Amino acid sequence: MKIKTLKKVLFVFISFLLLIAVIIFSLEYFSSYKTSKTIHLDAPVITRKSIVINAPVEKVWKIFSDVNNWDAWQKEIVTPKIDGEFKPGTSFYWKSNGLDITSTLQTVKTNKMVGWSGPAFGAFAIHTWYFNEQNNQTTITVEESMEGWLVSLLKGNFQSSLDTSIDYWLTALKAESEK
Hints:
This is SRPBCC family protein. InterPro entries: Polyketide_cyclase/dehydratase, START-like_dom_sf. The chain is an alpha+beta fold. Helices cover about 40% and strands about 35% of the residues. The chain has helices spanning about 1-30, 55-65, 70-75, 150-155, 155-175; strands at about 45-55, 75-80, 90-95, 100-110, 115-120, 125-135, 135-145. Strand 5 and strand 6 (about 125-135) form a beta hairpin. Helix 2 (about 55-65) packs across helix 5 (about 155-175). The termini are far apart.
């Protein structure tokens, strides 16, 4: 009698896991996101941050646009690799906070603006960076939106993580640019 009960429990458990796997696969496979040159204002997670860097915009831009060396100064990023020139349509690959990310540059205006977007597991993000120089200082303003089934499910966690990550990224870019 105990073996029959154990088999039923095991069958229900395995069936449940398969159902969850099918649901996650379907959510990933059938999700479609729209790229944009600006963030999606209706996304469940949005952040906007800025910082003033005591360096000319050309220096900040040179550091920022060198994707292959992001991990030298931004320790949350692992193995960044750009697949071509830093221009619209070029993709780059990176890991951040445990996520493997493929992003595609949408907008590149030298010393002015960069925008990219890309999917990660259960998420789609759009990043827009604005560079503004005044009196030999550069103000960076970042906007990012995140959407997707996992983002909607864990909105608070994603919002907190994104805010912390962007703060860190800006602080690291400031430190590197002011050397």
